[in-house]
Amino acid sequence: MIKNTKQTIGIIGGGQLGQMMAIAAQYMGHKVITLDPNPNCSAAKVSDELIVAPYDDVENLLRLAYACDVITYEFENVSAEALHEIEACVKIPQGIRLLEITQNRRFEKEFLTNEAKVKVAPWQLIDSKEKLPQVVTKKQVLKTTTGGYDGHGQVVLKTDKDLSAAQSLTEISECVLEDFISFDREISVIISGNGHEYVTFPLAENEHRENILHQTISPARVTDKITDEANKIAKSIAEKLKLSGTLCVEMFLTADGQIYVNELAPRPHNSGHFTIEACDFNQFDLHIKGILGEDLPEPKLLNAAIMLNVLGQHVEAVKVLNHNHADWHQHDYGKPDAKHNRKMGHVTILTNDFDKTINEIKATKIWD
Fold first, then answer.
1. Could you count the other beta carbons within 10 Å of the beta carbon of residue 348?
2. Which UniProt keywords apply (predicted)?
3. Do 216 and 271 meet the contact criterion of CB atoms below 8 Å apart?
4. Is the dihedral of CA 159, 161, 163, 168 positive or negative?
5. What is the Cα–Cα distance from 275 to 255, expressed in whole angstroms?
């Protein structure tokens, strides 16, 4: 008798990542129930059921827990405290500790330094404005320990003029002060695990604009030695976490080949969207397989690719790509309001010539 392997998966968070998790799960034959406060969230269209409730609503989280075999989360702003209230009722394979680590920059840096023993930028805890430097002698970045994303909740210290804004930030939150790393490029490793085995996707090279991911190139234009070292770092982190599901490890690569871990994202990541078209298994496929404890294949790169984010200001211009570049893969997250710098979708271009494709992207003038 063949055991029924179909599961009911609960997803906390119905944004584009929840949407793509749900699509992957549906393709595998699983049922999906999503919890999100927005009845028109991206994942609503691809879920079997939507529970409209805040992420910290314990009553509705319990409702989700009792209806599901396993629960996953699509982003870091889920309430860890609320998840502790339901963990006795349902499996949460990603783990609440991973969420707690990545929700707090202090906890994250302490974990990376003391447990994973990987290199991070020199940093110090700033829990009062008195602990800030009196004068700026080197470039540093002050970040709130919680709540920051896409550049929010941080101040770059370049001159003494920046100290006033830094002091204001310390009055509303505990912060970490990091030395600025002069990096050659930003890279990221997307890694998936099932609790005891871990596989990595092709290394990604990232470009940010206004602290929002603009473009990802994969495979990253680095040496095999750098790729191997980045994967080794990611696997050491995954092993310490006993990772189930997909994790992104964001890193800085310096001109002399040093790699510093910048931060962790405890779920599929924007820089891994290229895997949907460019790999035989994508980051969402292996996230679902990982949280269900299934065996994981080593993902293969089928074609080099460039992924571009489509923000609110790009939406209208991107429509012409259907005619001018029919071979470019467009993804629309189904969000109704195209706000400035809001992620509305992405475009993935399969290519055998990065320079030629980058010139084609520039010629569109969409992302100028």
1. 22
2. ATP-binding, Ligase, Lyase, Manganese, Nucleotide-binding, Purine biosynthesis
3. yes
4. negative
5. 27
In the chain, the number of structural domains is 3
Same domain membership, residue 213 and residue 70:
no
The whole-number pLDDT of residue 228 equals 98
Same domain? For 348 and 218 the reply is yes
**Do 283 and 205 fall into the same domain?**
yes
pTM given for the model: 0.94
Calculate ∠ Cα 127-56-104, nearest 5°.
Answer: 25
Residues 133 and 274 in one domain: no
CB 35, CB 53: distance < 8 Å: yes
353 torsion bin: left (phi>0), alpha (psi -120 to 50), beta (else): beta
Rg (CA), the chain: 21
Interatomic CA distance for residues 96 and 22, integer angstroms: 21
Long-range interactions of 254-258: CB distance < 8 A, separation 24+: 254/181, 254/182, 254/183, 254/184, 255/182, 255/184, 257/225, 257/226, 258/119
pLDDT digits (tens, 9 = 90+) for 165-220: 999 999 999 999 999 999 999 999 999 999 999 999 999 999 999 989 999 999 99
- Shared-domain flag, residues 70 and 201: no
Q: Tokens 């473009």, residue?
A: 215
- Using DSSP bridges, classify how beta strands 49-52 and 31-36 pair: parallel, antiparallel or unpaired: parallel
At CA 264, angle to CA 128 and CA 281, rounded to 5? 165
Binding residues for ATP: 105, 143, 148-154, 178-181, 186, 208, 262-263
Q: Which residues are annotated binding-site positions? A: 105, 143, 148-154, 178-181, 186, 208, 262-263
pLDDT digits (tens, 9 = 90+) for 88-117: 999 999 999 999 999 999 999 999 999 999
Residue pLDDT, tens place only, 226-245: 999 999 999 999 999 999 99
Proportion of the chain above pLDDT 70, given as a percent = 98
Identify which of 275, 321, 306 has the alpha carbon closest to the alpha carbon of residue 24. Answer: 275
For 368, other C-beta atoms within 10 Å of its C-beta total: 7
In three-state secondary structure terms, 14 is: coil
